[in-house]
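Today's session is about reading a structure prediction critically. Students often jump straight to the picture, but the first step is always the sequence itself: look for stretches that repeat, for charged clusters, for runs of hydrophobic residues. Only then move on to the predicted structure, which in these notes is written as discrete structure tokens rather than atom positions. Here is the chain we will use throughout the hour.
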Amino acid sequence: MAFTWGSALRITLLILLVAAVVTACFTLPVEKILKDFLTWVDQDLGPWGPLVLAVAYIPLTILAVPASVLTLGGGYLFGLPVGFVADSIGATIGAGAAFLLGRTIGKPFVISKLKDYPQFRSVALAIQRSGFKIVLLLRLVPLLPFNMLNYLLSVTPVPLLEYMLASWIGMMPITLALVYVGTTLKDLSDVTHGWNEFSKTRWAFLIFGLVVSGKLK
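Below is the predicted structure for this chain, in token form.
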């Protein structure tokens, strides 16, 4: 089995990603961090708040962390119009970042996970004929886990721009609904409540998958 600088770089980056996941999951007070982040966005950033909120989607989406806290926070902090725009753009950028990661250094991980989603085979075949429509449908009707879908679609031939546009349009309804719910919340604690209910078992499977995918091809 040949060892190349490219495979060494891929393994190193995957190890760093695993380390980030472990740290975030088991050592950091994530719920407090998210609440402090939203407080900082609200009190200190002024007109830059919506932009920073949108950018924050990138690390959460890459690590397959549900970003609903940010979506609710957008509605709570900025109201429906501004919150929706910031959250919609952020969710699309995050999905694009995960897609690019899956298409490049994360490709071994994605391939290793395909066997867990046998129904995706027919999706991949359909995308070859109509990529935009299939991605749009998958966003509107969540037949597969949202964050994993970003990676699964990365190994299909759908072009990046088609993927981004279809994802942006398809995610609009759920984004709008969550932003609206955020506008009805009375306290910032209501936005982050329930974070700790996120299953650490899911983190364990993600970490295991990343470790396995780091093997040399």
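Discussion point for the tutorial: The chain has a mean pLDDT of 76.
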